[in-house]
Amino acid sequence: MSAMLAGKTALVTGSTSGIGLGMARALAAQGANLMLNGFGEPAQIEALRQEIEKTHGIKALHHGADMSKPTEIEDLMRSTEQAFGSVDILVNNAGIQHVSLVEDFPIEKWDAVLAINLSSAFHTARLALPGMKKRNYGRIINIASAHGLVASAQKSAYVAAKHGLVGLTKVIALETAQTGITCNAICPGWVLTPLVQKQVDARAQNEGVSGEEAKKRLLLEKQPSGEFVTPEQLAGLAVFLCSPAADQVRGVAWNMDGGWVAQ
Fold first, then answer.
1. Which domains does the chain carry?
2. DSSP annotation string for 17-44
3. What pTM does this model have?
4. Cα angle vertex 46, ends 144, 41, to 5°?
5. CA of 110: how far to CAs of 67, 113, 194, in Å?
6. Burial class (CB in 10 A: 0-12, 13-18, 19+), 196
7. Sorting pLDDT into bands at 50, 70 and 90, what band is 120?
8. Using the 8-state DSSP alphabet, how is residue 230 labeled?
9. DSSP one-letter code for 72
10. How far apart are CA 203 and CA 213, in angstroms?
11. SS3 of residue 124 by DSSP
């Protein structure tokens, strides 16, 4: 499978850290050119971009689109097509979280979570699909969550958005079922991303325990394996979904969650 994606272009949203960065590295390792997206220190992002280019011998660019803003998403998609000629692989990974009871949930936080975790995937997909259909090739991978399949208290916006993302995945899969385009969702359990680390830190503080104990408690509440899923493991699944072996994997919400949803 070496250089399986040579000549293809992958756009990964939210790819300057965490799961998205793992996805970007894995796709670059298969020969795909990259459009990175995400926030961060400009110098660090530039160093990351150069490192990926040098390591994998591909072309990598970065676009800082705010994925809550449709006009910036449109510029991201347009810039990618102008730079590389196509968007062949679209990984919708950008996401944010807010934890609160429904009655206390700030309206602006609800709107932001829905915009970034769900609406952004609609906007990237609607803009990528015409070119994919013209070339009769495309891979759309939506990074949902175990929370796209089951719920947890105090995460109403996140759960609603991720359930919606799974539904959007299925619709796109049906609309492209007789084409060379596939659309699937990956549903991770707990991954030690910066987003989850914030929850670990908050738990440690609230419960007066160490960071390691907070991690253990967080995991064992939901994830029977007691181990975090890694970005590299998730990226391996994404690479498979881009392979010819996955040509008939369509509309799947594939959980990689240490047994979370099996309970």
1. 9-189+230-262 (3.40.50.720), 192-228 (no CATH)
2. SHHHHHHHHHHHHTT-EEEEE--S-HHH
3. 0.96
4. 70
5. 15, 5, 20
6. middle
7. very high
8. P
9. H
10. 9
11. helix
Specify whether the backbone of 227 is left (phi greater than 0), alpha (psi in -120 to 50) or beta. Answer: beta
What is the spatial distance between Cα 220 and Cα 209, in angstroms, rounded to a whole number? 15
Burial class (CB in 10 A: 0-12, 13-18, 19+), 50: exposed
- Secondary structure (3-state) at 249: coil
Q: Any catalytic annotation for residue 158? A: yes
Residue 2's pLDDT band (cuts 50, 70, 90): low
What is the pairing mode between strands 33-37 and 9-12? parallel
CA distance 123 to 90: 11
Residue count of the chain, please give it: 263
Torsion sign over Cα 203, 205, 210, 212? positive
Annotated catalytic residue, options 84, 110, 158, 254: 158
Greatest extent of the chain over all pairs of C-alpha atoms, in Å: 57
Other beta carbons within 10 angstroms of residue 148's beta carbon come to 28
Report which DSSP code applies to 161. Answer: H
d(CA 135, CA 88): 9
Per-residue pLDDT tens digits for 157-209: 999 999 999 999 999 999 999 999 999 999 999 999 887 898 899 999 999 99
> Six-digit token pair at 35?
């459009």
**Which of 112, 110, 129, 150 has its CA nearest to residue 253?**
150
Q: Give the span between the Cα atoms of 251 and 215, in whole angstroms.
A: 32
Residue given tokens 């109403």 in the structure block: 156
